[in-house]
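Q: Could you fold this chain for me?
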Amino acid sequence: MRFKAVLLSLLMATMSLSGCFGEDESVPVETEQTPLDGLFSSTTFYHYPGAINASNASIGYENLTGNSTPYPATGTYFGIGDTTFEPTIGVTSTGGVHFSSFGGAGRGTMVFTSLDQGQTWTNMGPFNPVFPSDDLGQVPSSNDPYIYVDKWTDRIVKFDMHALTAMFVEYSDDDGKTWSIPFSAEGYYSPQDHQSIASMPDVGGIGLYETIYVFCINTGSSALGPQCSRSLDGAHTWDIQRPGYPTGVAQCSGLHGHLAGSNDGAIYRGNPSCDGPAVYRSVDGGYSWTEHTITTTVPMQEGWHSHEVAVAADEAGNLFASWISIDQMPWMAYSRDQGDTWSEPMMMAPPGVNETGFPTIFAGEEGRVVVGYIGEGDDMGGWSGYMSIMTDAFADQPLITTVAVNDPSDALDDTDDCGNVRCGGFGDFIDVEIDDEGRPWIALAHNVMGEAGIVGTYTIGPALYGELRLLPEISAGGPSTVTV
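A: Sure. Below is the predicted structure, expressed as structure tokens.
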């Protein structure tokens, strides 16, 4: 919609005066207003897929209504108080935000928790009950820390891999105040690497717990592909590992992205098929899988993220997937039929960003989705953490609101090719989730400050759950909150 405000009263007054004093008639003064006035900043961008600025007058503003109405949005971040590696994050219905730290060999990983929207953080362990005063974890060493929150039960699952062979599951049902003992989730192939875990409702009633847990690992072999296992009793015991793809179908990658469960009982994981970025679907609790190639025209990046297809399902069961392509940019597509067919891929980054890495994704209410990544561009001073948000992904011209969680002068990394290599605390991947209020939270590392764990969000922005509205503003964080 295009608005023109004409100052009629001023015009009439000047015309009257000119009649009295013989002065030249004044030219009417017009000011143009748009729905985007005052919203852009050095860290906030409003654009369409393909890095098209939303203030492009040739496109107009008539589509910036309804669920594509632009909302004010500003990014920020908070330090957790410790280091991180391959950071993962989970949120509970209490508002608890939980983040994985990296303690290294002998100490083990810990879960840091904020119950006040990132303002303060507490190390919740799980601590070794024999040596609690020594700040030791129950699992004393983890090469890959990983946490996941079951959004149907609020169970926090801590999933550690040790020496590429042994894996352990610990869980908490009270925001980390107490923890279970470690349960073995060891596999039958070696190496056991790049583990991911998720859950979905037990819609078929086949288990002993209200959700079914599935984990998948990378075997390091395209021939073996990813292998997966399921638990029907709340992550206590696990089936023998089985192929996480349809048997008899050739595989060209043994690596995969994070798993994601859906309200309809399906579970998904992303990694390339032999034809392009793909999503693998299971509707029987992770026991068998089907393969669904997303596109053959926007291929996977040829570097570090050549395997990483991030997946998410919204409240209505629609499926979203994101990956880095050969142009080093983040792409996303969606499916409204459990992955059988896909939309045309959309490039999600804003104007000015020309290289990205570490794709991650989460979906909220129907059609609302956040794609996270790191990126850099001309004159941006290094790498920043980005969240690109759609509040109506299914619109003909979907608006993308992108926020950087850090200022350009406060780069998270200054390595030239950080998006295309294993880069400091980012490791292999990052993570993003949405809390029950509808606020997105992204897990990142601040490598310049010693691989510090940081959690990005926005101080103000549109809600991604519930009624589409502007969320209440929270206090900003920034570099002053980082200590390691």
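A (continued): The radius of gyration is 24 Å.
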